[in-house]
Amino acid sequence: MAQSQGHRPATPVPETYVLQGAAVRRWIGLAEIVADQTRDLVDVLNVFPVPDADTGTNVLLTLRS
Description:
mainly alpha
């Protein structure tokens, strides 16, 4: 396992690859909208490995938390 270099990455990361908090929050918000719209469909399709029909609900609740 590589040793930590404090708060800096071991390899410099170009600015274009750094996630911005506002962008991540926006993505989560959009993902929540899609998960809410498709929850019932995903729940019905959920049959493997256990047909408990709650995967869509679990995804939505995870995004909301």
